[in-house]
Amino acid sequence: MTGTTMKLTTLREEKPGISPANRSLERGIELLRSFRPGSELLGNADLAERTGLSRSTVSRLTQTLVASGMLQVDRRSRSFRLAPAVLSFSHAMRTGSSLLAIAAPHMKQTAEANKINVGLAAPDRDEMVYLESIRYNRRPSLRSVVSGQRVPMEITSLGRAYLASAPEAKRKALMAHFRQAKPQQWPALRAEIESAGQAVTEKGYCAASWQAEVVAVAAPLVFDGAHYALNVSLSSEQPFELLVGELAPVLLALRQTIVRALEAAVPE
User: Fold this and answer.
1) DSSP secondary structure code for residue 42 in this structure
2) Angle between helices 240-265 and 98-114 (to 10 degrees)
3) Contact predicate 217/207, CB 8 Å
4) Who contacts 159 (Cβ-Cβ below 8 Å, separation ≥6)?
5) Consecutive 10-residue runs of the chain (268 residues): their mean pLDDT?
6) pTM for the full model?
7) What are the sequence ranges of the domains in the chain?
8) Is the CATH number of domain 3-83 3.30.2000.10?
9) Residues 219, 214, 184, CA angle at the centre, nearest 5°?
10) What are phi and psi of 145, to 5 degrees?
11) Which CATH code for domain 97-265?
């Protein structure tokens, strides 16, 4: 079973009584979700494997998606790529987001003043998707993070901060998914996630270093009923605890500034 198929079976509930038309829409969206960086071209067989759908179903859906302008056919490889129309959805989302309009200027100011990286992300199944990423790292780095990029939820500060504030039913479903997806690592992983949740409760933030010499601290952010996570990070050879001590006050101050700006712009 592939990772994508596992997501379908553990994180997406089948809804009783759903109409065939709506089920086709749902399955079509699953095909679009299959396209990720590094897999720009996918054939029907690839899509069937990634979604768990039959090849005949995938074939019908890809024809519809091509006709509707969501996919393009690469005739040389007889496979598909996302069509330009998909990019317009991203632009519409970013320009229409009140949260980004208010938070981004403060994030940029903090990143420039402290020469650090600042990110804002939202959950999507078992991953976090960057809505904004402003990079002012103090030393050169080969890693770039851009809007739309995904990172794992269970091992990152962003994901663990989100889990700390997520609705209980959602959090339980995600924890069950991680347990099924990573049975060998689960005891240690569960302890780390729970420790991060306790840190958020007690300190307002959690910290993680899931990549070598990169330390990040993150805090949950709730706006208009939706849950997000805000983080600041730095690439450095300095000790983990020292960097956390430096970054945490910056993060908490930034979060407070954003929350106040949101409250002023969207009063209760």
Assistant:
1) B
2) 140
3) yes
4) 123, 127, 128, 151, 152, 153, 229
5) 44 58 89 92 97 96 97 95 95 94 97 96 97 83 79 97 97 97 96 98 96 91 96 92 96 98 82
6) 0.88
7) 3-83, 97-265
8) no
9) 80
10) -125, 125
11) 3.30.450.40
